[in-house]
Amino acid sequence: MHKKLTSLIKPLLRSLVAIGLVLTLVLGHAGGALAAGGGRIGGGSFRAPAPRSYSAPRTYAPGGGGYGYGYPGGGIGFPFVFPLFFGGGGGLFSILIFLAIAGFLVQTFRRIASGGNDGYGDGYGEASNPTISVARLQVGLLAEARELQADLNKLAKTADTSSTAGLAHVLQETSLALLRHPEYWVYAGSSVQQARLQSAENEFNRLALAERSKFSGETLSNVNSQIRQLEPKGALTVAEQGGSLVGQGPGEYIVVTALVATQGNLNLPKVNNSNDLRQALQQLGGVSSDRLLALEVLWTPQAEADVLTSDDLLVEYPDLKLI
User: Fold this and answer.
1) pLDDT for 264-298, tens place per residue?
2) Which residues partner with 192 through β-bridges?
3) How far is CA 277 from CA 27, 189, 192, in A?
4) Fewest beta carbons less than 10 Å away: which of 24, 212, 220, 261?
């Protein structure tokens, strides 16, 4: 009887131990995944450009008796038309009339070809809701790239993110910092979407929110020149962990994400290898301030004591490709 009871209890105990191990691993991984805080540099706004207004140039027509609007002769060229058709004028006057009519016809055809919006109409519909590119570029680096982490931290504390010129500088410096550490590149991914202004803002905000939600908290941020710095939640200091994290091996990573909204088309290559990544970084770094609408640069871990493991990277950034 005793042996029979023992044989029944042993499998039950083994099952309980196995369940306990699984729960320990799951909960331990969840705690690690939430231990990494992130840094954030961002700003900008999706403001529609003012609709174009056209004012016809006032040109002086010799002998025409005054100023006209874009055509030789006074009163839109009509003083020359009457002499031509009633036997007067000729020579130079006839040439001027021919040029005026030809110019009028050319502009008319241009308006028809462009749907009536070549600058002579208000063009309000297209100008107030232009095409915007929303790009995302992500790079996963080995944790040994602590210089990059220090560069981004310094940039977050000093950058002017209240102007498009300052944001363009942030984008350029971030691209340069990544280009300087190709030996640490491991993973990367890119995407670009074109949309009208009103829907592009929604897409940009959606992407930014998705990336920010991967952090346990934003331990350092500079958004529209408002700088905030917090202690990472639940993370041990370097001293408490017995030294620097730099030497803990290649199983830890730093992930940098750049979200960019620009006017017009931004042809960012699909990243499949290091050459594609280099080209994408160069293109992003070359975006001018007059085209840049909004920017978010996010990286994790931000604090030196935080850790992003290979499991964390696979779970939170499944779209990244090994390069």
Assistant:
1) 999 899 999 999 999 999 999 999 999 999 999 99
2) 135
3) 35, 8, 14
4) 24
- Token pair, residue 298, equals 């996010």
For residue range 67-99, what is the model confidence (pLDDT) as tens digits?
444 444 444 444 444 444 445 545 676 777 777
Q: Compute CA distances 123 → 50, 104, 107, 141, 197, whole Å.
A: 10, 20, 16, 46, 15
- Domain segments of the chain as ranges: 37-45+129-232+243-322, 58-124
Cα(273)–Cα(254) distance, integer angstroms: 18
pLDDT of residue 33 exceeding 70, the answer is no
Q: Which of the 8 DSSP states describes residue 120?
A: S
φ and ψ at 151, to 5 degrees? -65, -45
Please give the residue that has the higher pLDDT: either 123 or 218.
Answer: 218
Structure tokens at 307: 């850790």
Q: Comparing C-alpha atoms, which of 283, 262, 289 is closest to residue 271?
A: 283
Cβ–Cβ under 8 Å, residues 108 and 100: no
Contacts of residue 102, defined as CB under 8 A and 6 or more positions apart, other chains included, come to: none
Contact 232, 305 (CB under 8 A): yes
Cα gap 294→296, rounded to integer Å: 7
* CA–CA separation, 15 and 19 (whole Å): 6
Query: pLDDT tens across 94-123, in order?
Result: 777 777 787 777 776 666 554 444 443 344
Q: Is the preceding peptide bond at 269 cis, omega within 30 degrees of 0?
A: no
- To which residue do tokens 């939430």 refer? 34
